[in-house]
Amino acid sequence: APEDTASRHTRSDRQKRRSRSENRRFREKQQKRTASVLPDTVFYIGNVAGREFVSPDVTTVAYKGAHGSRFVGNRYPARDIKVEVTVIGYCFQMMPSYASKLMSVLATDVPASLSFSDQEGTYQAIVSAIDLEEHETYASGTITFTCPDPFRHGVVYDIAFDTLPTDTLHTNYNVEPVFNLVVNKSANNFSMNVNGDVLTLDMQVAQGDVIVVNSETRTVTVNNKLTVLETSGTFPKLKQTGNTIRFYPECVGNGSYTA
What we know:
By secondary structure, the protein is of the alpha+beta class. The chain is 17% helix and 42% strand.
């Protein structure tokens, strides 16, 4: 005898429930199988802060009855690089473990090399904090790398003053060069103009004086003697191409930069 409509609907509902149940068990089985190893993740890096110039800690001593103070020295503190990250996971059951898994990968007993795709050279860094806010299927937050040595180490390239305007530097961001100069003619002061930024040394310079301008450490030395009060203006930076440079008085020498 043919089935009535109610019976067909009841059997159809049972089949749908069984199908949904089987699909759910299949998904749970797949999730457990994937989670038993390491779930697939997508790792995004957002803003990176802390790669800019580190300001030095300057030490001075004041003397009773004297104006101002006397420069004693400076030191550069440790650098903190903060990296914004987003981790997208395969299943939400694994999200609580992502921070510990990241830490197990990134944690080192001593500072290790840290590099970025948009910047040549490396920092020596150690992970000091992982701050992730967990959601159902992703986690986002900040990883902090502390660099006891605040300076970046990379390939050092020489600068030829005569070809600098047409040279293309090995970098895609502004670099802070080091200039080693020998004065050709005595003058009451010294200045250099790089891409419109002028650095001035308000002191007499003599022919043969050796001037070292270090934009990385924001220092100028004349014959190995540090000048602080005499120095004013902007330390030079070089762009990727089209740089201009002028000296007063005329100087010879060379330059270098870390890419």
